[in-house]
């Protein structure tokens, strides 16, 4: 709403005000603590700023400054267990029985699924034998379970379904009746995409472990409600779309 109502102010001032507005909920999330969700909101905000017309040079500066602060944040801003997750990501062979246990077991599970998987609830799997954390396999490591039980085919089918959902959301944003509707859909699309990318990325060792659920798949309670609420808003934007005369 802010981005639609204050388009004429100086881009730097608009950027600072948007940052201040976004900082309040992010600080509350950090107090939980849930660093993974805070990180996810960064690309969402950048996507909204880009679509709202903020000059690219400001976005590039933000990204470069953020990249420059990553080493400082890792060494001085993270808690010990968070630093261990970074170490497990960069050096998964150092502590296979400790901090790197989960990511290594996730890779084994996905890799052992092969082309078509071992079958739903098949015996003697990483999941059934408890090698993946039992408290997280239905949430954070659900993609590992799908990869092991349904293989490459199941994983590709799931990714294809997500791609279809995201493309549909972008299609709705293109035909939105006003800029507020467009930004609303873009924000929801970016939120869903970043969750998908982060969850799948951490299970295949592309990203550090952050404990982010997979939208519409993970058993995650309130997060499912939030995603369904967001998709309902997307549907509302489509209902009130701009129809060419």
What's the layout of helices and strands?
Layout (H helix, E strand, L loop, with lengths): L1 H4 L5 H20 L4 H17 L4 H22 L2 H11 L10 H12 L29 H33 L4 H25 L18 H18 L6
Helix pairs in contact: 2-3, 3-8, 6-7, 7-8, 8-9
Question: What do these coordinates show?
Answer:
The chain is built from nine helices and no strands. The chain has 245 residues and is mostly helical. Helix 2 (11-30) packs antiparallel against helix 3, helix 7 packs antiparallel against helix 8 (179-203) and helix 8 packs antiparallel against helix 9 (222-239). The protein starts with a helix and ends in a 6-residue tail after the last helix. The model has no long low-confidence stretch (mean pLDDT 83).
Provide the descriptors you would attach to this structure in a database record.
245 residues, mainly alpha, globular, 66% helix
**Average pLDDT taken over every residue:** 83
- Sheet with most strands: none
> Helix-strand pattern, N to C?
HHHHHHHHH
**Total domain modules:** 2
Instruction: State the secondary-structure class.
Output: mainly alpha
């Amino acid at each position: 709403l802010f981005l639609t109502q204050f388009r004429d102010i100086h881009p730097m001032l608009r950027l600072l005000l948007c940052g201040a507005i976004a900082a309040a909920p992010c600080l509350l999330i950090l107090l939980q603590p849930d660093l993974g969700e805070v990180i996810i909101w960064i690309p969402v905000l950048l996507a909204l700023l880009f679509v709202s017309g903020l000059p690219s040079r400001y976005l590039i500066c933000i990204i470069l400054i953020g990249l420059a602060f990553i080493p400082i944040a890792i060494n001085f801003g993270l808690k010990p267990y968070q630093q261990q997750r970074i170490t497990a990501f960069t050096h998964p062979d150092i502590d296979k029985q400790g901090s790197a246990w989960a990511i290594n077991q996730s890779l084994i599970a996905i890799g052992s699924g092969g082309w078509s998987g071992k079958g739903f609830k098949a015996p003697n799997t990483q999941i059934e034998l408890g090698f993946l954390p039992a408290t997280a396999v239905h949430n954070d490591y659900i993609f590992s379970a799908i990869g092991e039980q349904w293989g490459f085919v199941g994983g590709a089918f799931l990714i294809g379904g997500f791609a279809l959902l995201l493309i549909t959301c972008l299609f709705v944003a293109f035909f939105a009746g006003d800029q507020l509707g467009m930004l609303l859909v873009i924000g929801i699309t970016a939120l869903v995409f970043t969750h998908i990318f982060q969850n799948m990325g951490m299970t295949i060792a592309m990203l550090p472990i952050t404990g982010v659920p997979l939208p519409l798949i993970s058993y995650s309670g309130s997060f499912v409600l939030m995603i369904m609420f967001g998709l309902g808003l997307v549907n509302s934007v489509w209902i009130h779309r701009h129809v060419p005369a």
